[in-house]
From TrEMBL:
UniProt source species: Wenjunlia vitaminophila
UniProt xrefs under Pfam families: AAA_19
InterPro entries: DNA_helicase_UvrD/REP (IPR000212), P-loop_NTPase (IPR027417)
Molecular function as annotated in GO: 3'-5' DNA helicase activity; ATP binding; DNA binding
GO biological process: recombinational repair
GO cellular component: cytosol
The organism's place on the tree of life at top rank: Bacteria
PANTHER family the record matches: DNA HELICASE IV (PTHR11070:SF17), UVRD / RECB / PCRA DNA HELICASE FAMILY MEMBER (PTHR11070)
Taxonomic lineage of the native organism: Bacteria, Bacillati, Actinomycetota, Actinomycetes, Kitasatosporales
Gene3D superfamilies named among the record's database cross-references: P-loop containing nucleotide triphosphate hydrolases (3.40.50.300)
Protein name stated in the entry: DNA helicase
Length: 370
């Protein structure tokens, strides 16, 4: 690269993160894997900025709209004049590229096979305008998506962790690599710069598959398992946490949308220093769609939208909703691995009812039970 096209490196990147970026050529397809807290989303933004310097259109894609908002904000701090990068959802990109009539399957998601046939018919016609695609949380997209983008993109770089596959249309790292082609490069990034040692250790109890990530050195308080008598008790405790740490971001992760709505009603009347926020993926615009994830205060989010986010304090609000699930089920363990690793400083696993949920049993030593 010429000096004018030199990569822009964020001053907060670690040496390992810089080495990861340096190991990625500006051509070809690549898969970057790493555990929660290793900085994959930040690296994805940097990678997109570097690729934009080549002059090709560059998009930073995610399946989640809430993660798209976070990536958009990250890109604002990495802006390079003349080399714009757009953060978009995969859904929005497909509609833009193939039109609003893009074929779908019975489950409502896109028909990747038909779209791939359409793309194959025009291969080579628009090479000059073919975009660089960078995909964050790429494990949540199917191999069919990667077979498609292999044909339409100038390059594809995927950041993923197969231990965090929460969607039904997901891929392992091997499946992503095979779908992108034999020449696809593989890079691993280690380290956990988000969680405390106590939070990461609890997450390890729920992790399924993969290697053994390094446990952070930074220590903090034990995660807490708390019983709540009802939603009012839960809301009061969340309000107390927010008041005790007014500069912090408190992420409340729920499985039940009814719980989310009731919590918001109570939190809005609690006189918090910062107005609570709620993300609803079905909202098309407005306060329940466009959030400010950088400001302090409480954010209520469904667990399906929690991927890629982080908060100073995390409250997993309704663990009792999983009481009927086999505690050894991979999907359940993966969900808790993702939710737990969203927490930077403090973690509360809350439950209601008369009996401790089975998947929260046997955590003595990892948690403070109250």
């Amino acid at each position: 690269m010429t000096p004018a096209n030199a990569p822009v490196l964020h001053p907060d990147l670690t040496a390992a993160q810089r080495d990861c970026l340096d190991a990625l050529p500006l051509t070809g397809n690549h898969v970057v894997s790493g555990p929660p807290g290793s900085g994959k989303s930040l690296l994805a933004a940097h990678r997109a900025v570097h690729l934009a310097l080549t002059g090709h259109p560059t998009l930073l894609l995610s399946r989640s709209n809430l993660l798209r908002q976070l990536l958009h904000d990250t890109l604002q701090g990495l802006t390079v004049p003349g080399a714009p990068v757009e953060a978009a959802t995969v859904h929005g990109w497909v509609l833009r590229h193939f039109g609003y009539g893009a074929p779908r399957t019975q489950d409502g998601w896109f028909d990747w096979t038909t779209l791939t046939h359409q793309a194959a018919a025009t291969v080579g016609e628009n090479e000059a305008t073919a975009p660089h695609l960078v995909v964050d949380e790429g494990q949540d997209l199917s191999p069919g998506f990667y077979r498609l983008v292999r044909l339409v993109a100038a390059s594809v770089t995927v950041f993923a962790d197969e231990c965090q596959r929460l969607t039904e249309t997901n891929s392992t790292l091997t499946e992503i690599t095979e779908a992108l082609g034999r020449s696809t490069g593989r890079v691993e990034i280690a380290g956990n710069h988000r969680n405390t040692r106590e939070i990461a250790s609890l997450a390890e109890h729920f992790r399924t598959g993969g290697g053994n990530p390094d446990i952070p050195v930074r220590c903090g308080q034990l995660p807490a398992v708390r019983h709540y008598s009802g939603t009012r008790h839960l809301a009061d405790d969340i309000a107390t946490m927010a008041a005790r740490h007014p500069a912090d971001r408190v992420g409340v992760i729920v499985k039940s949308l009814r719980t989310a709505a009731e919590l918001m009603r109570r939190l809005e009347r609690a006189g918090l220093a910062h107005e609570p926020q709620l993300y609803n993926s079905t909202a098309t615009a407005g306060r329940y769609r466009d959030l400010d994830l950088d400001r302090p205060g409480v954010v209520v989010v469904h667990r399906a939208s929690a991927k890629g986010l982080d908060f100073d304090t995390v409250v997993i609000a309704d663990a009792e909703s999983d009481s009927g699930t086999d505690p050894t089920a991979a999907a359940l363990r993966m969900a808790y691995y993702v939710m737990i690793t969203r927490a930077r400083q403090r973690l509360v696993l809350g439950w209601q009812g008369t009996r401790l949920p089975r998947h929260l049993e046997g955590l003595r030593g990892w948690v403070d039970e109250r």
